[in-house]
Write a structure and sequence with these properties.
- The chain is α+β, with helices and mostly antiparallel strands and 792 residues long.
- The chain is built from 21 helices and 28 strands.
- The strands form 7 sheets. It has a 7-stranded mixed sheet, with helices on both faces.
- A hairpin with a 5-residue loop joins strand 13 and strand 14 (312-324).
- The radius of gyration is 28 Å and the shape is globular.
- It starts with 14 loop residues before the first helix and ends with a helix.
- 54% of the residues are buried.
- The protein binds pterin cytosine dinucleotide.
- Residues 200, 253-256, 370, 506-510, 513, 545-552, 666-671, 674-675, 678, 681, 738-743 line the site of pterin cytosine dinucleotide (MCN).
């Protein structure tokens, strides 16, 4: 056995089953007597629901039941709750309209669930749903946030005037106004952050089950089963938590879209109770496009005030955030506390003021998608810095260096609430520029031109906050739940270990990295540590996985629990070795009396704990199992530099990423191979957002890019070989010194890509191009005018 502890590139334990097709996903699970749900969804963006005739569908072969919103209301089923409350500028709470599980009175987006048909087979349920007679009265719809706030725009919710969910702000407006008044330069940029469809590899699925005693089990594709149990049990179905078990087994990716409590989970659980048969639902891919929460969708105006030398004096930001038709579980927090608080980025801008209006539209609800708020902030800043350099003639690298928070300024208090603990932005920039051979770029540009290609290079120096979050801070900011994490570490009598974690792994490799953390601390092989997650019946509690929190928060809870195990082990060893507990040292899996060769192995201590023939039974309970909660003092603040090099084909406008370098400071690295994979995945999604992906609605709210024919996912040939480097400044407030990595790729990369595209098009007078920078958009720019270069 080679070194397997912290820092070792241990191969993923979970791949033994995943690579052999032996995963156990929700759709792989079939319960005895199981029946199938098909959900009839609105095919129109906005309509009054005048009536639903279910009789033909109910009489169709194999059908057990057809339910509508009225049936659920009659049973006292509540609406889907929102987990975060934002307050308006005047202190009043945000508009929080009801979100019925099945539509009541109106449908508000394409995909809004209208009725559920339950039948013996999936096909029977689907066929019967065709027989539902739904009497809709179409209403005018509205799809964009800019249209939704226009006077006279259709109201998505009759009692939400102007479609405004909230009008919120952060920062010191007076200081910003004063800085703008005295500034030598002001540079303004308007930009949109395109709407995305998460597209996890495994579509969502759920099975509800109810036994004779009224005990419910829900199998679901969730990133946080305990939160689903809490929300669904307490607010929607009113099932006591001890009678509701939620299991999220293997989950094939989530990227945020599986955090939330969705209608289908409540539907199958409730229907299982009514029918006393297990009820299964699995989304079809096209259904996922209109029923999974989508991501981003910001329209922003940003202005920077600068002095003559290019020092940033103040930043003013105004953003419209499209919430979609209803508030998804975390949605209100994304364009506020996960976005505006990040607007300092890596820069020492002294004054910042941001206003955010969240707006309802007739579109699919929007919520956190990989990065959640932080990509929007990083994109805004890193585009703005390049535009400043362009407009005022500064060197884009020197402008960044000049405005960086210097390495000796930490801890650094930003003007937008966050206090960064550590970072070194000069270092990551230097390493990335070197790895990308930035200095040699102009020669590559020249060579490309000779081949008929336009070549550009783009840099982004981003920062993010993750490892969500200190509960007290989150609570003060409107979170309705705590954000700690829980670990239970059970040492079995023979010295192997089972770790029960409240985090959930759905691609991140926790079974391996968490085992490494434990193995490292206990001096035992990784194979001796089993990590259990995703089952409220086995794990004490948990807040789940999102916001790149699992290692920093969940891993820290594991460390705390392991440290309690070691402390107890020392007391047992002291008894066995007839020494004082203060003299016992624990190292490399052995408890030793300091300065002697008297020792006991970890396995011997474990066995003694369970077979207490010679044990301090008066002072110590037998067994070796500990639970710990960890509530972080602060977020962690990964930052770094991404450099992207593109080539554009002049004939077709097709952009190709030819080189990508990501140098990220993620604190101490547990498993470099997994980290590299996480960065690769994030960068792939960032390149997808920058060049290809776009959820496009027509003006009324009909989704036009609702399948893979129209919504372009990045494919292998859109991606270069990605160079990943990690440079560390250690997090100062968690015991591992780690920062999160799960989202950095998706946060740092989009501005690097767009900066590279704009750089490639510099001879065409391009100042900005909105994402996605498709071949069509680029072709239009190239062919709309002659390049300045050619004209000169
Ligand atoms: N890690 C490490 N050293 C560090 C930081 C992390 O070895 N310094 C390891 C961790 O132990 C873990 C992995 O890297 O195995 C990711 O850790 P972390 O940054 O804590 O992120 P989470 O585990 O909380 O995962 C959430 C994050 C988010 S928010 C999204 S979105 C996302 C992502 O992870 N969704 C993913 N990566 C994904 N990867 C896959 N395959 N599928 C998804 O849905």
């Amino acid at each position: 056995m080679g070194f397997e502890g912290i820092g070792a590139a241990v191969r993923r334990k979970e791949d033994a089953r995943f690579l052999a097709g032996r995963g156990n996903y929700v759709d792989d699970i079939n319960r005895p007597g199981q029946v199938y749900a098909y959900i009839k969804r609105s095919d129109r963006p906005h309509a009054r629901l005048k009536g639903i005739n279910t009789s033909a569908a109910a009489a169709a072969p194999g059908v057990l039941a057809v339910y509508t919103g009225a049936d659920m209301a009659a049973d006292g089923v509540g609406g889907l709750p929102c987990g975060w409350q934002i307050h308006n500028k005047d202190g009043s709470p945000m508009a929080e309209p009801p979100h019925p599980v099945l539509a009541m009175g109106k449908v508000r987006h394409v995909g809004d669930p209208v009725a559920v048909v339950i039948a013996e087979t999936k096909q029977q349920a689907k066929d019967a749903a065709e027989l539902l007679e739904i009497d809709y009265e179409d209403l005018p719809g509205v799809a964009t946030s800019t249209d939704a706030i226009k006077p006279g725009a259709p109201l998505v919710h009759d009692d939400v005037p102007g479609n405004i969910c909230y009008d919120w702000h952060l920062g010191d407006k007076a200081a910003v106004d004063a800085a703008f008044a005295r500034a030598k330069h002001v540079v303004k940029l308007e930009l949109t952050n395109n709407r995305l469809v998460p597209n996890a590899m495994e579509p969502r699925a759920a099975i509800g089950e109810c036994d004779v005693s009224g005990n419910y089990t829900l199998y679901t594709t969730s990133q946080n089963p305990h939160v689903i149990r809490l929300l669904m049990g307490a607010f929607v179905l009113h099932i006591p938590e001890h009678q509701l078990r939620v299991i999220a087994p293997d989950v094939g990716g989530g990227f945020g879209s599986k955090i939330y409590h969705y209608a289908e989970e409540a539907i199958v659980t409730w229907a299982a109770g009514k029918l006393r048969r297990p009820v299964k639902w699995t989304a079809e891919r096209s259904e996922s496009f209109i029923s999974d929460a989508q991501g981003r969708d910001h329209v922003t105006t940003a202005e920077m005030a600068l002095d003559e030398q290019g020092n940033f004096l103040a930043l003013r930001v105004s953003t419209l955030a499209n919430m979609g038709a209803y508030l998804s579980t975390f949605a209100p927090s994304i364009p506020t506390y996960l976005y505006a608080t990040l607007l300092a980025g890596v820069y020492k801008t002294p004054a910042i003021y941001a206003e955010v209006k969240a707006v309802f539209t007739n579109t699919v609800p929007v919520d956190a998608y990989r990065g959640a708020g932080r990509p929007e902030a990083a994109y805004l800043l890193e585009r703005l810095v390049d535009v400043i350099a362009h407009d005022l003639g500064f060197d884009r690298i020197e402008l960044r260096r000049k405005n960086f928070i210097p390495p000796d300024a930490f801890p650094y208090q930003t003007p937008v609430a966050l206090q960064y603990d550590t970072g070194n932005y000069q270092m990551t920039l230097d390493k990335a520029l070197q790895a990308a051979d930035f200095a040699g770029f102009e020669e590559r540009r020249r060579q490309a031109r000779a081949r008929g290609k336009l070549r550009g290079i783009g840099v982004s120096t981003y920062l993010e906050a993750c490892g969500i979050a200190p509960s007290a801070v989150a609570g003060a900011l409107g979170a309705r739940a705590g954000l700690y994490e829980v670990a239970n570490v059970r040492v079995n009598p023979t010295g192997d270990v089972t770790v029960f974690t409240g985090a959930h792994s759905h691609g991140q490799g926790h079974e391996t990295t968490f085992a490494q953390v434990v193995a490292d601390r206990l001096g035992i092989p990784v194979a001796q540590v089993d990590v259990v997650h995703g089952d409220t019946g086995r794990i004490p509690f948990g807040m789940g996985t999102y916001g790149s929190r699992s290692l920093a928060v969940g891993g820290s809870a594991i460390v705390k629990a392991v440290d309690k195990i070691i402390a107890k082990g020392k007391r047992i060893a002291a008894h066995l070795l007839e020494a004082s507990v203060d003299d016992i040292e624990f190292k490399d899996g052995k408890f030793t009396v300091a300065g002697t060769d008297k020792s006991k192995t970890f396995a011997e201590i474990a066995l003694t704990a369970y077979v207490p023939h010679n044990y301090p039974i008066e002072e110590l309970e037998p067994g070796l199992e500990e639970t710990a909660f960890y509530d972080p003092k602060n977020f962690t603040f990964p930052g770094g530099c991404h450099v992207c090099e593109v080539e554009i084909d002049i004939e077709t406008g097709t952009p190709k990423v030819v080189n990508f370098v990501a140098v990220d400071d993620i604190g101490r690295v547990i498993n470099p191979m997994i980290v590299e994979g996480q960065v690769h995945g994030g960068v792939a999604q960032g390149i997808g957002q920058a060049l290809l992906e776009h959820a496009i609605y027509d003006s009324q709210g009909q989704l036009l890019s609702g399948s893979y024919m129209d919504y372009v996912m990045p494919r292998a040939d859109n991606l270069p070989s990605i160079h990943v480097g990690t440079e560390s400044t250690l997090c100062t407030h968690n015991p591992l010194g780690v920062k999160g990595v799960g989202e950095v790729g998706a946060i740092g990369s989009p501005p690097a890509v767009i900066n590279a595209i704009v750089d490639a098009l510099r001879d065409y007078g391009v100042r900005h191009i909105d994402m996605p920078a498709t071949a069509e958009k680029i072709w239009s720019i190239i062919h709309a005018q002659q390049p300045r270069m050619a004209a000169e």
